[in-house]
Write a structure and sequence with these properties.
heterodimer, A: alpha+beta, Immunoglobulin-like, 3-stranded antiparallel β-sheet, 2 helices, 26% strand, elongated, B: mainly alpha, 18 helices
Chain lengths: 191, 449
């Protein structure tokens, strides 16, 4: 079957267009293909100054320069940003950050440090979590040893308040009971 | 036929006057009860909708979380103080003229405190959880103090009513014959074997005095604690040390007005002109002036300080009351419900039954709206505003369900009083005990021997 000439031309033109689009896209994606970076975290402490060192390397183990990393510490409801707002790796792929001394940790002083890499042109987003005992250990008070106060739990009401209210209630209800008892006695009088 | 038979039973005209209404039921009474029940049914429908759909059917939102239910509650607690005013303050001060008013004041007190307790439960979104308040009791909370004091005051009010009624119940038991069996049974049980013996009288006299003294601090406590529900909450208009005496004095004023109102209606409908005389209205009028002046004094204290300083939200609150959205209501309440009644009642002609009845009606109306002004505008000015508030939070216009329920609570109050009046003598019949108090101890001894 012989197709008309104009159809042939259209098909061949469309084929060429599709090939160009395909090649172009594969070229572009190939150019931009993202790779995973690798981030290692080390800690150093000298004369009470705590320093967190993050080193970024690519798949071949070469340091990545000018890579922006974000540092956080996990808190109860969200991540607390720490250090400078923007931190970029130097030519050795390293960021050194002085670590705060006053962050409350868990009962053992452990902090969960989160390092994030995101919105990089060359590397995939990633999150690294490390635990380090650089926090101040918190002491969870035994609820039973909670101080007596107006704002504490029911069991720890101030003693003066309990004594005061109880004695007032007792005084009034003693009188009420006495009156009811007297009424009972009145009902038993045989005259 | 029946009526003739009964008239013979009353030995004296006095007996017929004070006991007659317990035996005869007029069509007017039936109509009145039917009217109250109708309002209650309508209110019950509103409450059914509130239970079914939740507090969303009310206009209460995150800002105004206490609406007319709570202002109504404060009003009921206020008028419940009337029992202690008449039965304790006036009695202990030997104001014998107030004796015929004791019974009705005690009845009003009982009815009001019952309605106050009920309206609190109505205000709860989950009334089924009411008992958690008891089981998870936290003594530090002023709300718990209020629960404790209300139940205590209710008990004392019931006792106060019962003790003063006891000899009269015995009179009903002995003298009323043409009444249904259940009524006879009720009088017999409630009369707890009262025989009017000297020993019984002596004992009853003793407990009456004890109770008259006890009720006073409890009455002060109930309204002071109610004021603390507000004073312990940090809101403009409530953050005041003046709130306790301000509430208590306002309560006594409202209570006195309620008594005058009730006196007039009883006098007309039960034909008690001989017992509730012009002198009573005159005396109550003077008392109302005194109580209103005390309340006026606390009102000046309450508003002058913040109005002079005009600090922040507190200032906004004052502006809203004086010249803003609530100004018409505020000035109507202060002038129409407080200042004008004082001025009018200073003059004797206005202390005659009808004028004082009308004036006390305005005092009561003012007292109710005053509670509205205490509760609602304060809530619309929180110290910590919420971001991006919904438009509905900024206003409070009670819905028909809220009005229906509030009206029903008033109908309940009136129904309880009406039923109590129907069941028990409203004018103390047997005042032998009271008479004995006037007798010198010596002659009392002689009489006993």
């Amino acid at each position: 079957m012989k197709l008309p000439k104009y159809i042939n031309t259209t098909i061949s033109r469309l084929s060429i267009l599709l090939i160009i689009v395909y090649l172009n896209s594969s070229f572009m994606y190939g150019q931009d293909s993202m790779e995973d970076a690798s981030i290692t975290v080390t800690f150093s402490e000298e004369d009470g100054v705590k320093t967190l060192i993050a080193a970024a390397t690519d798949q071949e183990g070469l340091p990545i320069e000018d890579l922006e990393l974000y540092f956080y510490v996990k808190r109860t409801f969200s991540l607390l940003p720490i250090g400078d707002p923007f931190n970029s790796t130097d030519e050795n792929g390293i960021i050194e950050m002085e670590f705060a001394n006053d962050l409350p940790g868990d009962t053992e002083g452990n902090l969960e440090i989160v390092i994030k890499l995101f919105e990089s042109d060359l590397y995939n987003d990633m999150t690294v979590e490390v635990t380090k005992d650089w926090g101040i250990p918190i002491i969870i008070e035994d609820p039973k040893s909670e101080k007596r106060s107006l704002w504490s739990a029911a069991a720890n009401a101030p003693l003066t308040l309990i004594v005061l209210i109880t004695s007032m209630i007792a005084a009034v209800w003693y009188i009420i009971c006495y009156i009811i008892f007297t009424l009972f006695k009145i009902s038993r009088i045989k005259d | 036929m029946k009526k003739d038979k009964l008239t013979q039973e009353f030995k004296t005209e006095r007996e017929r006057k004070v006991l007659g209404h317990l035996v005869f039921t007029s069509p007017k009474y039936k109509l009145w009860v039917a009217f109250l029940i109708l309002i209650i049914i309508f209110g019950m429908f509103g409450y059914y909708r509130q239970l079914r759909y939740g507090l969303e059917v009310t206009a209460m939102r995150d800002y105004t979380s206490w609406g007319i239910y709570i202002s109504n509650f404060v009003f009921f607690v206020a008028i419940s103080l009337v029992g202690s005013l008449i039965s304790s303050i006036l009695k202990l001060n030997k104001n014998d003229w107030a004796r015929p008013l004791t019974r009705i004041s005690e009845m009003i007190a009982v009815a009001a405190i019952i309605c106050a307790a009920v309206i609190i439960i109505v205000d709860m979104g989950r009334p089924d959880r009411f008992f958690f308040v008891i089981t998870h009791l936290r003594i530090q909370s002023p709300i718990i103090w209020d629960v404790i004091i209300i139940s205590t005051y209710l008990t004392i009010s019931l006792l106060l009513l019962f003790i003063s009624l006891l000899p009269d119940i015995a009179v009903c038991r002995d003298k009323l014959t043409a009444i249904p069996k259940w009524k006879k049974f009720m009088y017999r049980v409630l009369a707890i074997n009262w025989k009017n013996s000297d020993v019984q009288i002596a004992k009853l006299r003793k407990v009456t005095t004890i109770l008259a003294i006890t009720v006073l601090p409890v009455a002060f406590a109930i309204h002071t604690v109610t004021s603390w529900l507000f004073a312990t909450t940090w809101r403009p208009g409530w953050d005041s040390t003046n709130l306790g005496p301000y509430f208590v004095s306002g309560a006594f004023m409202a209570g006195a007005a309620v008594i005058i109102f009730a006196m007039y209606l009883l006098r007309i409908h039960l034909n008690l002109k001989e017992y509730i005389t012009n002198r009573h209205f005159d005396k109550m009028g003077r008392l109302l002036v005194l109580l209103s002046l005390v309340y006026l004094y606390f009102n000046i204290n309450e508003y002058l300080g913040p109005a002079f300083k005009m600090v922040g939200v507190e200032g906004e609150h004052i502006i809203e009351l004086f010249t803003g959205k609530y100004a018409p209501m505020y000035w109507l309440v202060q002038v129409g419900g407080l200042i004008l009644p004082i001025i009018f009642l200073i003059f004797r002609p206005f202390r005659r039954p009808l004028p004082i009845f009308i004036i006390s009606f305005f005092v009561i109306l003012g007292a109710w709206f005053k509670r509205f002004l205490i509760v609602i505008p304060s809530l619309q000015h929180p110290y910590l505003p919420i971001q991006g508030v919904d438009e509905s939070y900024l206003h409070y216009n009670p819905t028909w369900e809220e009005w229906a329920i509030t009206m029903a609570s008033f109908a309940w109050l009136l129904l309880i009083i009406t039923v109590l009046i129907k069941l028990f003598p409203v004018i103390p019949v047997h005042d032998k005990i009271e008479n004995k108090e006037e007798v010198e101890p010596k002659s009392l001894k002689n009489e006993a021997s």
